[in-house]
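User: What would this chain look like folded?
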Amino acid sequence: MDSGINLINEVFLAASEGIIISDKKGRIISANPTAERMFGYNTGELENMLIEDLVPQSIRDHHHAHRSQYFHQPKPRPMGIGMDLFGQKRDGNVFPIEISLSHFIQDNQPFVASFINDITERKKQQEQLKQYANQLEEKVKERTQELEHLNLGLRKEVMDRRAAELALRKSQKLYELIARNFPNGAVNVVDKEFNILFREGKGLKFDTDEQGNYIELIPPEDQDYIKNCLAECQKGDQSTWEHHLDGETFMVHAVPISFDQNISEQILIVEENITEIKKAEQETRKLLSRERELNEMKSRFVSMASHEFRTPLSTVLSSVNLIAKYTESDQQEKRDKHLNRIRASVKNLTEILNDFLSLEKLEAGAIECLMEEVDMQAFTQEVIDDLSGIKKTGQKFKFDHKGAVIFTTDPRLLKNVLINLISNAIKYSPENSAVDIIQEISEDTLNIEIKDRGMGIPLEEQKDLFQRFFRAKNAFNIQGTGLGLHIVDKYISLLSGEIKLESEEGKGTTIKILLPNGTKETTRH
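Assistant: Here's the prediction, encoded as structure tokens.
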């Protein structure tokens, strides 16, 4: 969640356009560095000012009414369509701007985000184009007057003048379109056959130079689709598509260019590089997915913990109350019975807490593998002996070791794995049954099989058995957190091993572990 907020803050601070967030009363809540520089303010000075403070004095009263009307029916849109908009700097200078508005609700309060671009340079370019056109027009007029005075080839010169005027309008239209649409990418102009007439900027990386046919320069697998898009433009429609090439993503806009009688003679193709935007979107989705996963895990933990803790705590409480009633010396047997119940309940709570602590360390990557040589026959026998006290009536262990004896591994992790799996075999097997533990060391590999005669696991649920908090539907009446096998799977991964499961309902379960021989070193995961 913190990394997601940091990413949003970085985008806000690094945006190339000014961003100002204001409340319903027009009070500025936040402004990014671009907006502060644009209006000539120092860091933080815009906060708590009114948005009208950035509007020219002559139209501030009107702006207040427009702002109130926008909150009445808020929606994302450009501001002042068909109008020239201006902002006022701190020093009083007025400059042309372009504004888009977007609204959002936070803590039940409406806010507006204003995205502002300083278009001073664009206006200058447009004015220069206009002056250039006027100059050309004047030159044409001067030339026409000269030809009229000389009375030489009047008709031919008139036709030339009309052709020059048409060419001028075409050029002016083309340059205006380029000035308005030139993005962080490239601009192309193609003719009716899609031959490139003009190309400027860094867009799709073609294998050839700027000359040639636009369609032929596109990878073959995309040619038909893009050709169809451009054919729609020839009919007078705009077209937009995404294109992926060399690990980059481009948003491509195609706009028909009409010079006379609305006939599309050329197509303007604008390629905008949106690779970084796409990466930011993917990171945001990952953060949201991780946040949902954590929230779900918290909810399941609270639900499971409240259930699993309630039974042993109730047992402890009732046993303590009963012990208080056995005050006679000849009632020691009854006291011992309830003391044993208390010990078992406390042991159960300890196992649950150990599972949670192990999971927390695994999730935090705080587990170290400490490799050392282990006498596997004596090691496993010791684990079996430690667990003999929790066997049910009539249960037996059948332990068989084959092959070499010495094996290099992390005994702490492996012991936790064996304790968990053998305890499960005892818990899920009935009385008077056997638990088989078979292990073999061969060719630098340790194979361990633990087989019980329990209830088995439904086939359709076996794929989810190693997920955290998962419990099979036929095991809900048996105590457990649903974390044991998940932790075992993580430990086996830390040891670079594999774990497999074979089970059939009513016939028992076999867990198979395959571990490679390690080296004497410390590895942090």
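The two ends are 23 Å apart (CA to CA). If you want, I can go into more detail on any region.
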